[in-house]
Design brief:
Elements: H1 14-34, H2 40-72, H3 80-104, H4 118-131, E1 132-134, H5 138-146, E2 151-155, H6 161-171, E3 174-177, H7 184-196, E4 200-202, H8 213-223, E5 227-229, E6 242-246, E7 249-253, H9 256-264, E8 268-280, E9 283-292, H10 307-329, H11 340-346
Helix pairs in contact: 2-3, 3-4, 3-7, 4-6, 8-9, 9-10
C-alpha cells in the first residue's frame, strides 16, 4: 500500500523533489507527534476549513495539470478536479483522525504483539460507517473465500479506501501487505493505523540473502486461506513490473498480485469505488461505495518457454481494464492522479512508459 503523498504537478528538478520529500517527512513526523493530543473537534474543524480553502487554492494551482491528466485518461468530467481535491482533504483528515486514536492506544510499537484496542477500533468503524458503504458486491469476496484457496484482494488507491478497509475486515478478516519503508516514523504510523482498523499486517524489509522470504510469507498466508490485500496501481520502471496497455501507452505495474496468483492459484478480486446518494436519518447524503468486481483467475497457459511472463501479463491486463474503467468514470475517487511516479507516466517518461 502507498499513501499517495508524493504529489507531482509537472516536471521538477532533483532539488525540488528532495525538498518535497523532506517537507512530507516533516509533516508526517509532526502529525505523529501531535495527533494523539488533538481533540476530535479540532480535526473536524480542520477538515471543514481545508474542504473550502485548500480545495479552492488547489483548483487554482493544480487544476490545469489535473485536467490535462484527466484528458489523457478520457476522464475530464466537469468539476472533477474540485471534487478530487475535496475527496483528498477527506482522505487525509480522516487518516489523521484514525492516527490519533491508533497512537493514543499505543498501537505503533513494532516490537510488541498487538493486544487489541476496542475503543480505537470502535472509533474507526464509526468513522468508516459515516463515510463509506458496502454493497451487495461483497458476496463476490465471500464466494472467493469459500473456495478455500486464499484470496488476493486488489484495490485501487481510491480516496478513503483506507477508511473502508476496516468495514470489509469486520466481515472478512484481512491481512494487509505494506511496502517496507526505511523511515521509522512512516512505519510506525502505518502499523498503528492498520492495527486500529483491526487488520493483520505483513511488512518486512527485503533480505538480500533471501529475496524469496517476503513472497514466501505472503504465499503462506494465502495457503492458510487468508484474504491478502495488495494494491497493484503502482507504476514501475520499464522491465521491473508487468507491462500492460493503459491510456494508449505501455505501463509497467507492480507484479506482486499477478505473481502470487500464478504461483498459488488464489483468485484476484479487484476493488474500486463509486459515489452514491443514499438515504440516512439525516436526509439524503453522498457516500463512497466500495465495489468488488468478479474474481480473476490466473490464465491456463501451456508451460513452455515464456509462459510465466505471458500469464502475468494477461492477468495484470484484466485487472488494469477494471482500473481504467473506474478512473474514467470516477476520476475524483482515484488518489494517485498527482503521484510522482504516475506523473512520469503522464509525461511519457521513457523510463516508465513506451
Amino acid at each position: 500500500m502507498n499513501d499517495g503523498l508524493t504529489f507531482d504537478a509537472g516536471g521538477r528538478s532533483d532539488a525540488a523533489r528532495t525538498l518535497r520529500r523532506r517537507l512530507l517527512r516533516g509533516f508526517l513526523r509532526a502529525a505523529v507527534r501531535i495527533a494523539p493530543h488533538l481533540p476530535d473537534g479540532a480535526i473536524g474543524a480542520l477538515r471543514a476549513w481545508a474542504s473550502v480553502n485548500l480545495t479552492s487554492l488547489g483548483v487554482g494551482v493544480l487544476g490545469p495539470e489535473l485536467r490535462r491528466r484527466f484528458r489523457q485518461a478520457g476522464a475530464d468530467h466537469p468539476g472533477a478536479a474540485r471534487e478530487f481535491l475535496r475527496q483528498a482533504v477527506l482522505h487525509y483528515t480522516d487518516g489523521l483522525f484514525i492516527l490519533k486514536h491508533a497512537l493514543a492506544s499505543g498501537l505503533d510499537d513494532e516490537t510488541a504483539e498487538p493486544t487489541g484496542a476496542p475503543r480505537a477500533l470502535c472509533e474507526v468503524i464509526d468513522l468508516a460507517r459515516r463515510r463509506i458503504r458496502l454493497d451487495d458486491s461483497m458476496r463476490i469476496l465471500h464466494d472467493a473465500i469459500a473456495r478455500r484457496r486464499g484470496v488476493l484482494l486488489a484495490p485501487v488507491h481510491a480516496c478513503q479506501f483506507l477508511t473502508g478497509l476496516p468495514l470489509i475486515a469486520a466481515e472478512a478478516p484481512l491481512t494487509v501487505y505494506l511496502r517496507y519503508s526505511q523511515d521509522e516514523t512512516d512505519r510506525r504510523a502505518k502499523l498503528a493505523w492498520c492495527r486500529a482498523g483491526g487488520l493483520d499486517v505483513i511488512a518486512e524489509r527485503s533480505r538480500p540473502g533471501d529475496p524469496a522470504a517476503r513472497p514466501a510469507r505472503m504465499a503462506e498466508a494465502l495457503a492458510e486461506g487468508r484474504v491478502l490485500v495488495i494494491t497493484p496501481d503502482i507504476p514501475q520502471r520499464r522491465g521491473r513490473g508487468v507491462p500492460v496497455r493503459l491510456w494508449n501507452r505501455e505501463v509497467h505495474l507492480a507484479a506482486g498480485v499477478a505473481s502470487l496468483a500464478v504461483l498459488t492459484g488464489a483468485p484476484v478480486v479487484p476493488v474500486t469505488a463509486r459515489t452514491d446518494r443514499v438515504n440516512t436519518p439525516r436526509g439524503r447524503v453522498v457516500r463512497n461505495t466500495i465495489v468488488m468486481h468478479p474474481a480473476l483467475e490466473a490464465p491456463t497457459i501451456p508451460r513452455r518457454r515464456g509462459w510465466r511472463p505471458e500469464a502475468l501479463r494477461q492477468l495484470q491486463q484484466q485487472w488494469t481494464d477494471v482500473f481504467a474503467e473506474f478512473a474514467r468514470n470516477y476520476p475524483h475517487l482515484w488518489l494517485h492522479w498527482l503521484d510522482n511516479r504516475w506523473g512520469r507516466v503522464f509525461r511519457r517518461d521513457s523510463r516508465y512508459t513506451a
